[in-house]
Design a protein that fits this description.
This is Sensor protein KdpD. Pfam families: Usp (PF00582). One of its GO terms (cellular component) is plasma membrane. The protein is of the alpha/beta class and 230 residues long. The protein has two domains: 124 residues, Rossmann fold; 63 residues, no CATH class. The protein is 23% helix and 26% strand. Helix 1 links the parallel strand 1 and strand 2.
Length: 230
């Protein structure tokens, strides 16, 4: 019999897709659940029936089941024959009174409903009452592989008026803004450290690192705010 968690007002759901990052997400969720002393659930969604999973998918599912037992996860949930992953996540969140959801950033290329980074936006719209954490599993991000981010918020980038060539993060609309996007703040920091993600003029998602409100990565894309509207 599982012990009753200390904080039943919080409950975490980790969403995993097929690939090597599933275990990392589960372990990150487990660490967060331990810190908060609250229940942890793990969910995977697939449009195919469970008995039609190929050997690779079945292998990942079995491994995750074993890992969940090892880590004393409350429940490992499989939603097969489900073509609408956002709906499945929303339903499970309601059923288990989930207050926080963890997903992998690179999963954006794999989930069924994702086009041009819209998955996170759709999820935020559908489950606005839940905190969404993005765990970076993109190998192109340096030294942030296991960082957990807070719920994304609308933000802007503008050139620093005092330091030429430096760009700063802002949260209010202004004629000086050059970029509009979503800022994901790292959990556990009092400063605005994290990642600013935006859609460039070609419709592709780009991102830049932010350290204490300042862009520390290079902004290679041209501004995505049309100055002609001001």
């Amino acid at each position: 019999m599982k012990k009753i968690r200390g904080r039943m007002d919080e409950s975490i759901l980790v969403c995993v897709y097929y690939g090597p990052n599933g275990e990392r997400l589960i372990r990150r969720g487990h660490k967060l659940a331990q810190m908060m002393d609250c229940p942890l659930y793990v969910l995977t969604v697939d449009p195919l029936p469970y008995d039609e999973f190929d050997a690779d998918k079945s292998g990942f599912v079995e491994h995750w089941k074993e890992l969940c037992e090892e880590l004393d996860v409350e429940e490992f949930i499989i939603r097969d024959k489900e073509k609408r992953s956002v709906k499945a996540i929303k339903d499970v969140a309601h059923t288990y009174n989930i207050t926080q959801i963890i997903i992998g950033q690179s999963a954006q290329n794999r989930w069924e409903e994702i086009t041009k980074g819209s998955f996170v936006n759709v999820l935020l719209r559908e489950i606005s009452f839940i905190d969404l954490h993005i765990v970076s599993v993109d190998r192109t991000l340096k030294s942030t592989d296991d960082t957990i981010y807070e719920k994304g918020v609308r933000a802007f980038i503008q050139e620093d008026g005092e330091v030429p060539g430096q760009y700063r993060l802002k949260f209010t609309r202004s004629k000086h803004n050059l970029y509009e996007g979503i800022f994901y703040k790292e959990i556990g920091t009092d400063f605005n450290n994290g990642v600013f993600k935006f859609v460039n003029n070609k419709g592709k998602t780009s991102q830049v690192h932010i350290t204490e409100n300042v862009c520390t990565g290079e902004l290679k894309e041209p501004p995505n705010i049309d100055k002609s509207i001001h």
